[in-house]
Design brief:
The chain is globular and about 55 Å long. It is of the alpha+beta class and about 250 residues long. The chain has a 13-stranded antiparallel β-sheet, covered by helices on one side. The protein contains four helices and 13 strands. Keywords: Signal. It comes from Undibacterium hunanense.
Length: about 250
Amino acid sequence: MSAVYRIVFFIFLCLHVIHANAQAAGTALPNLDSILQQHYAATGDFSRLQSRRVKLRIIGMAPFEIPSTVEAKRPNLLRRDVFLQGQVQSSAHDGKDAWKIDPFLSSGKQTVNMPTDELPALIEEAYFDGILVAAQKSGFQLRYQGEEKLDGKSVHVIKVSVPGTGESSIYLDASNFLEVKRVQKRPVMGQMTELEIFSMDYRKQDGLQLPFRIEIGTKGASQRMRMIIDQVDNNPVIAASRFQRPAGN
């Protein structure tokens, strides 16, 4: 074997080894199932929760802070009460029926059907275990979009399509697999608007990782509405009637 041939053969062998290693590494690349499993492990076992009550403050929607309470119960019951200027705005979903009471509208304190443009957000929020678990359980389309950079950090991007509500892109921190951002198009004031939702200030409570600060704004906006979580109660006793449309109203 000539010296030149040996050199060519050596280069060929190196390229073959590099290609083989690349193929092996490729099989170890993140896939959707492994990322979701690590996300569930990071957030904790929500399956042991049957109900929860969250007290929070909304900042940036008005010149003052707006206190609010969100109650949820399995399988997909949800109620939001917003306390504003001595009045209470209530909206709820009992699994089938979605309704609201808004004393600032012409309907006053009468119960009305949830407006069409507000319904998708309420339905998604009612998924007790979150949109990713709901998507897997219900067979909604989930797609892994790859790894990106977000504020200098690596994130995994998962796109989920929910019938009737649209698509959302979920960004999971590649280091701890917690959700840090969500992008979705939703109707706002009658127009489809791309919203960015940032989750931060995660704290461990009852073995679960929960964000205690959530910021929401239109894509690219410097100003965002903030929701500051003050209290989370896991497994409180909540009557089913709390989510049902008030009788005779």
